[in-house]
Design goal:
Length: 141
């Protein structure tokens, strides 16, 4: 039975994202960390002068969501916030935050590799470019 939802690009992207997120969440459960929390830690580790706004922009999330994620990471002692002024906190990883990234790195890398295991490098590049174009179109709405 064919209906419009089955042809919807947004539905197909969301369906794939949900499957990826569910598997990735299950994988990260052993480290007591959620995918968005791990992504946030990774951004903090590799970006310079990281603050809540920068993380929100990179992840495409609102600042309130990122604020909750940062609060959780702070409670777990994975990050430290250093107040620069009344509105800005720089964020850095703690030793424990670095450890959780290192402990989960192998499984995360394997998971990311498996996502593209039946795709050629050129197909991966095309897919990434197409998704970036779709995201750009959405921003223009």
């Amino acid at each position: 039975m064919a209906y419009e939802l089955q042809k919807s690009l947004g539905f197909k992207i969301n369906q794939a994202a949900n499957k990826i997120n569910n598997k990735f969440t299950h994988l990260l459960n052993q480290f007591d960390i959620a995918p968005e929390q791990r992504a946030t830690l990774e951004i903090i580790k590799y970006e310079k002068d990281v603050n809540q706004t920068k993380i929100a922009h990179i992840l495409g999330k609102d600042k309130t969501t990122i604020s909750r994620t940062l609060a959780t990471l702070e409670k777990k002692n994975f990050i430290l916030k250093k107040q620069i002024d009344k509105r800005t906190n720089l964020i850095e990883l703690t030793k424990l935050g670095n450890e959780i990234l290192e402990k989960s790195a192998t499984q995360v890398k394997e998971f990311r590799t498996t996502l593209f295991s039946n795709l050629e490098n050129e197909e991966v590049n095309v897919l990434v470019n197409l998704l970036e174009k779709v995201a750009s179109n959405v921003e223009e709405l």
